[in-house]
Model the fold of this input.
Amino acid sequence: MTENFSDEMVQLRHLNIVWFKRDLRLSDNKVLCDASTQGQILPLYIVEPDLWSQKDMSYRHYKFLGDAINSLDRDLRLKKSRLVIKVGNAVDVFSYLNKKYKKITIWSHKETWNGWTYERDKEVAHWAKSNNVDWIEYKRNGVVRGLQNRDGWSKQWYREMNMPICGLTESIKTTVEPSDSLPSAEDLNLEFDGLVKSQKGSREEAERLLNEFLNKSGKNYSSQMSSPLTAYDSCSRLSAYIAFGIMSVREVFQALELNKYKLKDLDKDSRNSWNRSFKSFSSRLRWHCHFIQKLEDQPQIEFNNLHSAYDGVREHEFDHAKFHSWKFGNTGFPMVDACMRSLIATGWLNFRMRAMLISFASYHLWLHWRETSLWLANLFVDYEPGIHYSQVQMQSGTTGINTIRIYNPVKQGYDHDPDGTFVKTWLPELSGISKKYIHTPWLSSVLPKGYLEPIVDELSSRKLAAKAVYEIRKNSDFKKVAKSIYVKHGSRKKSKLTFGASKNKKRKIIHQEELPL
Ligand SMILES: Cc1cc2nc3c(=O)[nH]c(=O)nc-3n(C[C@H](O)[C@H](O)[C@H](O)COP(=O)(O)OP(=O)(O)OC[C@H]3O[C@@H](n4cnc5c(N)ncnc54)[C@H](O)[C@@H]3O)c2cc1C
Done:
């Protein structure tokens, strides 16, 4: 950035900068709505090379971001505005603009993202304060900053989701400011990572998916979400769009509520099926914010076990050879390998199979979740740290407040891909194997050429892991710590805390994702 400001520029009075972060949309963007009522604005996106050098960032994320930025710029141009890109460190960019213009105000959403963005925001806040710059931050989706406890959180979430969506005027008065061009993935040292078929990160595509899901493909969502054979078409596939803020959770929620009215005209069976699906879907929209709230309240869950009793348990036994086999889908367990290879190629996987992948790594292979979660973060186009690390810890048994669930990949295979159709798509070397042995090829008379022996014994490794994890739960202090974790993070529909309540009340909580001991 050069500092040769023209006289004309320097004359400009007060510049309102709309700092786009993970809210790359015009619709339901209150930050943009409110800032643009103040006069001229500068719609800004900062590409931060240091962020893109972090271990959890990948080529596929950047490709999707590139689509989203182009889509946002197109939409802004329809409003006679444009997106200005600056490449560099956020504090440097704001210092430059602050010197160039007489006074700046920064507008943005609060970001609850990875450790790097957390530290960056602290630096920006410090710089803004020291330079008398106002930084106005708005709530993002239903996540609350500075939450005292979880009582009443759910009610608050519904209130937030029902708030009206703000509208923009025909044109947005925009300051002329030179834009950098978007660096290529190669400029940021992001290497191609095997993605063959990705979603396109445009607003248009998000709207198409939402419409398709609510009117057609979502009908059997609740019964078809668990199998990788049906999930690609029956799930909404909106996660990456929500993660990048191309569409807000509120927009999805309100579209869903509107569609509920249409159900009354359907026959009973169809109506029941849609009702079940809409109910499950609506819960998941809430979970989205519920999990991000955990990271907001405790940023360290990206790095440390939620329950300290698990510290030191897996760290010192990390088997790199097993990790390598798991990473590239070479464990000898067809369902695990097919899921990993499909994820590498498409950037998406349904919930159950994500859970199975991490559970297999954490239990059967006894790998610490920190390394495995980074690998999956790279592969999920929809990587959202708040959901990701909370889920990874849940499926690794380190939260202390969830039921221990160890997925047997052979059972998952027979339950959710009984004919081996999914497995054979991603593991062509198993194309000749019979249905009987498709999930246990090592039991057939000859192991198909090109496929491997399993790297662990399924039953004994599962039992060993379960024993180790349950053993830790017996420690005298375990419950005390678990209770405090539950108080801080536990989901509860009722406004009052019910941990340790009577049996009936306890049962109510079991229906939700958190389970007291
Ligand atoms: C180990 C593991 C890691 C995960 N990492 C991520 C991640 O980085 N980013 C991410 O968005 N989801 C993550 N999930 C949750 C879930 O698997 C995905 O949100 C879902 O598969 C995305 O597909 P979809 O958009 O079709 O979801 P749908 O089933 O159509 O659900 C609609 C939306 O609800 C939200 N949602 C759905 N399931 C969950 C859930 N269990 N918890 C929280 N929110 C949910 C998502 O925003 C999703 O787009 C993870 C799950 C596991 C087990």
Q: What stands out?
A: The radius of gyration is 24 Å. Residues 225, 235-239, 242-243, 281, 284-285, 287-288, 291, 350-351, 354-355, 358, 380, 382-384, 387-388, 391-392, 395 surround flavin-adenine dinucleotide (CB under 6 Å). DSSP finds 23 helices and five strands in the chain. The beta strands are 14-20, 41-47, 84-87, 103-109, 134-138.
